[in-house]
Design brief:
Layout (H helix, E strand, L loop, with lengths): L7 H38 L12 H24 L7
Amino acid sequence: MASPKLDRGEIIARNIGVGCITTVAGFFSGIMVGVLVAKFVGSMQGCKPGEGLPACNWWVYAGIGAVLGALTLPLLALRRLNPGKPNE
């Protein structure tokens, strides 16, 4: 089923909406993945986190994960939403 043709303004508005939503989702999902990686790294190093903390140095991994998630999820979503023109 073919999608309806959108004019330039509608495409830009759609891309902004998708980009904003996926940036927020990527930010938080990146934090969760980063903390999971921190738990694995901490357990491999034999680190014992303080009481109430998920892992040793978790904030470093959470920050890196947040940045990577906030950049990659919108990029992937927008690339999928706006495919390049096929070679003719």
